[in-house]
Amino acid sequence: MKKIITIDREFGSGGREFGKRLAELLNIAYYDEEIIDEISDKTDLALEYVRSIVEKAPPLSFPITIGQTFSPILPPYTEQNSKIYVEQAEIIKELASRSDCVIVGRCADYILKDSGAIRIFVYADMEHKVKRCQERSPENEKLSNREMAKKIKAVDRDRRKYYEFFTGEDWNDRLHYDFLINTSNKDIKELTRAFSQIFDINFDIK
Amino acid sequence: MKKIITIDREFGSGGREFGKRLAELLNIAYYDEEIIDEISDKTDLALEYVRSIVEKAPPLSFPITIGQTFSPILPPYTEQNSKIYVEQAEIIKELASRSDCVIVGRCADYILKDSGAIRIFVYADMEHKVKRCQERSPENEKLSNREMAKKIKAVDRDRRKYYEFFTGEDWNDRLHYDFLINTSNKDIKELTRAFSQIFDINFDIK
Question: CB-based burial of residue A19 (10 Å sphere; 0-12 exposed, 13-18 middle, 19+ buried)?
């Protein structure tokens, strides 16, 4: 079967590790930063600038203002942002048509929803997300568990806004995904190894 | 690995079929009606009576009234209902300790949450749930698609109320489950065959 797999994930749930390991186990391409690099190459924008825009949700006030005033002139930040999203969507489609792959984030689930992609959402409870983030944060940037939980919520709020801004859909709606995977209490390496077995069998989306 | 698998499912999503096929493929026990039969044997209540109470959510007004008045006397229906739930929970624990198994519904995910059970939630979009229900309804009981959608929503509302009444939790909260599986657009037989591969690998809940 064709193996085009998209992964959305809550911050701290280990979704990125899950995606990387899955791509390795299935021996297929893996994209996240790479996509941004490619956008960067195509648009001649500095990598860091592109990265900062794609990582951060656009201010929510823009689409609301636009909706209320029907202003034909978009603020430069939104225009730039929308241009990047459109290019990014094209690149994602191109990559998915090129070879089997895992694509993490970037609304890839939405962009590839009609192309037979298997869309995965990875999540966990707050306790495990905080624990995972604490284990990975540098010694000189230690936050309290409460501060870390706040940061995790803020990142996911941005991801949700970003998704909603560009797709008009709720990032949390389970109907956007084929599988939702809870990583709380689990070893992600073993979980990925178990889950990768699914792809040995043909269960194409009709 | 130990294979205790609980399945919650939206009405019409094919969760029951998924559970039965999974049990067959893994060669382990399967319970749903069987649990009720066993309750029936233990309590000397007529099977049909037990079945009707377990299938239907208790009136939501009961717990609210109890909370407000701290009345020590419960209405007979609720008392009977709670008694059945408690017995049912004991039986579910007993069954899960006896052998590997799949248990569909009956708040089994909640009852077995601390015993290393793999908790699955099966769902689908309304279009596919209606289609599935229409294909399975007898010729002389045909509903319009709109009536069928209404029926599907009503059954799930009852399931949600039942779950909330006995566990105090939201049936739809993804944190109660390890995997959520969307059956829309999929062949359930192939999907189950693919998913059953997961259990070949050891990914015990810690």
Answer: buried
Residue-wise pLDDT for B26-75, tens only, equals 999 888 866 655 665 666 554 455 445 555 544 333 333 333 333 333 34
pTM here? 0.83
Residues 6+ apart with CB under 8 A from A120: A5, A6, A7, A8, A18, A177, A178, A179, A180, A181
- Look at B194 and A194 and tell me if their CB atoms are within 8 Å: no
> Alpha-carbon distance A157 to A149, whole Å?
12
Q: How far is B166 from chain A (nearest CA, A)?
A: 22
Report the residue of A198, A199, A200, A204 to disrupt the B interface, i.e. the one with the largest count of B CBs within 10 Å. A198
Token couple for A186: 């689990």
Max CA distance (Å), chain A: 52
This complex has an ipTM of: 0.82
**CA atoms in the 13 A half-sphere facing the CB of A44:** 0
